[in-house]
Write a structure and sequence with these properties.
It is built from 6 helices and 7 strands. The protein has 267 residues and is α/β, with parallel strands linked by helices. It has a 5-stranded mixed β-sheet with strand order 1-2-6-3-7. A two-stranded antiparallel ribbon has the order 4-5. The longest helix has 24 residues.
């Protein structure tokens, strides 16, 4: 297996911090980022708008700090895991050999999105060690709770005086995972829209034909949503007029994620 590089070792250290929802270890993550800032020579700040949920900002001051700054944003939390379905412990960050003598790292957050936040750090580390000076100030921002909506993280941060003082002129955020060594940059963002339908009706029972149940009322809505989903999927699979393939940005994806009903199991 290929020799492990210091940059990869730092990435592994980041992955091993269990910032997993619903109880992310933000304290350990903040200490890790503070250590990185100290090693690289960056300014370090934390802002908490909800206790225990820090927004971490690492700053590389530019030669013209009065100009609008650049923000490179990432989130530190990761989605929950079901360890019984993993081939390796999700927070071990195991190195698994590949056929070409290299290796893969298997860990929760390795794509979404600790790799991006880590690449920011390594890029800045290399630039600074090479003596590069930037005209504009660069802020590396690490926010909590993105995986659960970001209400206690980025949503509060962008409304704060601390954010206004960053004087942001340009920002890069999360994109799509890339299997190769190129980074794809997008100028737009797909926005989520969560919809919850609640129906009330007569209680059901397996022994009779109960009319006007809540589930019966929901069926037309579910069927409409699934029809819309099929239409969008068909559009995605249909090439554009110039023959090029469509991407997810060309359609509206839709999924039925939770369906719950009933208060007893014996009906």
């Amino acid at each position: 297996m290929a020799e492990i590089q210091p940059s990869v070792q730092r990435f592994i250290e980041y992955l091993r911090i269990k910032t997993v929802q619903p109880a992310p270890d933000y304290g350990s993550c903040t200490r890790f980022l503070e250590g990185q800032a100290r090693e690289i020579g960056l300014g370090f700040q934390t802002h908490e708008y909800v206790a225990g949920k820090p927004v971490v900002v690492l700053t590389w001051s530019g030669t013209s700090p009065e100009e609008p700054s650049i923000i490179l944003n990432s989130h530190t939390d990761v989605v929950p895991v079901f360890e019984e379905f993993w081939t390796h412990p999700p927070f071990e960050a195991a190195r698994v050999a590949t056929g070409d003598g290299d290796f893969r790292i298997i860990a929760r957050g390795s794509q979404d999105m600790k790799i991006v936040g880590h690449c920011y750090l390594e890029a800045v580390r290399r630039l600074r060690s090479s003596g590069v000076r930037l005209r504009r100030t660069l802020h590396l921002v690490y926010v909590p709770d993105e995986e659960i909506g970001g209400e206690d993280g980025m949503a509060r941060f962008v409304e704060s005086a601390e954010f206004a003082r960053l004087n942001a002129g340009f920002a890069l955020d999360e994109g799509m995972a890339n299997p190769g060594d190129a980074v794809r940059v997008f100028y737009g963002e797909r926005a989520p829209c969560w919809v919850r339908f609640v129906a009330h009706g007569n209680t059901g029972h397996g022994s009779q034909f109960i009319e006007n149940t809540a589930a019966e009322k929901l069926l037309p809505i579910v069927n409409w949503a699934m029809d819309f989903r099929r239409q969008q999927l068909e559009t995605l699979r249909t090439p554009k007029d110039d023959g090029s393939a469509r991407t997810l940005g060309d359609v509206t994806s839709a999924n039925l994620t939770v369906l719950a009903a009933g208060v007893q199991h014996n009906v």
